[in-house]
Design goal:
This protein has 404 residues and is of the alpha/beta class. The chain is built from 15 helices and 9 strands. The radius of gyration is 20 Å and the shape is globular.
């Protein structure tokens, strides 16, 4: 009886959020696209009267000299810059606070997030802390708790996966508790997003595969959830089609510029979908794998997604069938059950071809109750999943991720 009432309350709140997201004016970043487009960002900053950038990235990208063309173009346009490259694969609150100090010490007036989702998310939260010094990172957890607008913010993704360059979300880890959580606010959406496939050419195959499956997770969870609309559905279907057609090619042949460009667009479309329609249990569980064990987010999503889709296949049957058709692996007239099962099989096959395992090697059996509790605390009531999961069901599902 209590569980029935809880589920009704969850659905009521999700319905309210669906109505709200349909009327809230989500900003859409200006897009700079195509090979070499990163060089055009500096001119856009100059036109806006910005003079002193904090570039948030990581040491690996700096060692690879990936930001070099951007930094050269900033210099050519008379825009000063300071590099903050102390971003970890799962950025922490400490990373944010250190970045905030660098911004203030160098009197910067804008921020560029350059890298994968970790760098971009860290940059977003640095901006939120700069403009909201009275709010700790933990107090901004959840929905719409960034009260004042962040400094002018721009994104240059170097992976095709997170979609962070178009979303309201930023994910951060509390190193003290090993809890990973999201901050969601319209003020975190960047002014400009640069989708330059040249920056992705050198990505290792395992990064290409897992970030690409991250983008697919965004598209799938946005589409099968209950809060989608015409805009999010179209973006999710477009993303799915592009990922099915291009991810394995980008994985096998990283220098294929067309495949790289299409994957960058797919990531953007998937981000546009999930930032309005939300995600689901795949993300809720994956966040905790990242928080507890440091498992890369895209890898965790890729491994977990088939298990969650099997859990809710019947409830999401019609939607999964729609994605199968959109992805070019089915036709109208085939049964929804057949199409939905084929879609899940396609996800499993892609994982297998790209050497993504079926288990999370770091997972410890003793941690399963904590992971399940934290995952459901994150998902309920905000995530409009097709089938609501009990704690026992969540523990059972997480248990399937143990190495056999």
């Amino acid at each position: 009886m209590i569980w029935t009432v809880k589920k009704r309350l969850y659905r009521t709140q999700q319905q309210v959020m669906k109505v709200a997201s349909a009327v809230i004016p989500f900003p859409i970043p200006v897009l700079l696209t195509g090979p070499g487009s990163v060089k055009n960002l500096a001119e856009n900053l100059k036109v806006r009267g910005l003079k002193n950038v904090l570039l948030v990235t990581d040491k690996i990208l700096m060692d690879l000299k990936l930001p070099e063309s951007l930094l050269d173009s900033l210099q050519e346009n008379g825009v000063k810059y300071t590099v903050y490259d102390d971003v970890q694969p799962n950025p922490t609150i400490e990373s944010v606070e250190n970045g905030r100090k660098v911004y203030q010490k160098n009197k910067c007036d804008c921020i560029i997030g350059f890298g994968g989702g970790s760098a971009i998310d860290c940059a977003k939260i640095i901006g939120a802390r700069i403009s909201n010094p009275f709010m700790s990172v933990r107090r901004m957890k959840g929905l719409f708790r960034v009260f004042l607008p962040i400094p002018p913010f721009f994104c240059v993704p170097t992976t095709a996966g997170t979609g962070s360059e178009t979303t309201v979300a930023a994910v951060i880890t509390d190193a003290a508790t090993h809890e990973k959580f999201a901050i969601n606010d319209l003020k975190l959406i960047p002014k400009i997003a640069v989708l330059d496939p040249e920056l992705m050419v050198g990505l290792p195959p395992h990064i290409t595969s897992t970030t690409g499956m991250d983008a697919l997770t965004h598209a799938v969870e946005a589409y099968i959830g209950l809060n989608g609309n015409k805009f999010t559905d179209e973006n999710a279907k477009n993303a799915t089609k592009l990922i099915f057609e291009n991810l394995e090619e980008a994985y096998k042949n990283g220098k294929n510029m067309e495949a790289r460009n299409n994957m960058a667009l797919a990531s953007f479309y998937a981000g546009a979908a999930f930032t309005r329609a939300y995600v689901g249990y795949v993300h809720a569980i994956a966040h905790n794998m990242g928080g507890l064990y440091g498992v890369p987010h895209g890898l965790a999503n890729a491994i977990i997604m088939p298990y969650v889709l099997e859990f809710c296949r019947k409830e999401a049957e019609k939607k999964l069938a729609g994605l199968a058709i959109a992805g070019g692996i089915g036709t109208r007239g085939e049964s929804e059950e057949v199409l939905s099962r084929r879609f899940i099989d396609k996800v499993k096959t892609m994982n297998k071809k790209m050497k993504i395992p079926t288990f999370i090697k770091e997972l410890k059996e003793k941690d399963i109750p904590l992971i399940a509790k934290r995952a459901l605390d994150e998902a309920h009531p905000d995530y409009p999943v097709p089938r609501i999961m009990t704690l026992a069901e969540c523990e059972e599902l997480v248990g399937k991720l143990l190495k056999k």
